[in-house]
Task: inverse folding
């Protein structure tokens, strides 16, 4: 089950922090990654990159990680951007992602997609306590 839309959200804890993390999941991730980073990064490798605005200017510089489907947490294409943790910077990046076609994820929606795509145990029998 793959939803037709692509979602984005700030994944780092609210408040002050040196590093801010934004996650994106869905079918449009490869195109969005190529646009915001200038190129689609190689899978499962951290890349130092500028995160670009609509004019090609850097909003921030940080690490980008791309996980192609189905080998990701959600089972969909996933992009993770790790940049500076300032709320202003994170808000600019989220706005850019929304402009590129993402929608804001609902609370728990990344985990919901992981569950629906069989990435999280479906029944209690598969979730045995350790040592049993």
Result:
């Amino acid at each position: 089950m793959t939803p037709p839309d692509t979602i984005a959200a700030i994944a780092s804890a609210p408040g002050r922090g040196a590093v801010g993390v934004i996650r994106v999941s869905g079918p449009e991730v490869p195109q969005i990654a190529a646009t915001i980073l200038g190129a689609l990064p190689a899978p499962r490798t951290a890349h130092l990159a500028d995160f670009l605005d609509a004019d090609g200017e850097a909003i921030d510089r940080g690490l980008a990680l791309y996980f192609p489907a189905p080998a990701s947490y959600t089972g969909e294409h996933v992009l993770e951007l790790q940049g500076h943790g300032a709320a202003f910077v994170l808000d600019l990046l989220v706005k850019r992602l929304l402009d590129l076609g993402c929608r804001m994820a609902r609370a728990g929606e990344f985990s919901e997609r992981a569950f629906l795509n069989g990435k999280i145990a479906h029944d209690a029998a598969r979730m045995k306590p350790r040592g049993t």
Observations:
- The CA atoms of residues 16 and 85 lie 7 Å apart.
- The longest helix spans residues 87-99.
- The mean pLDDT is 92.
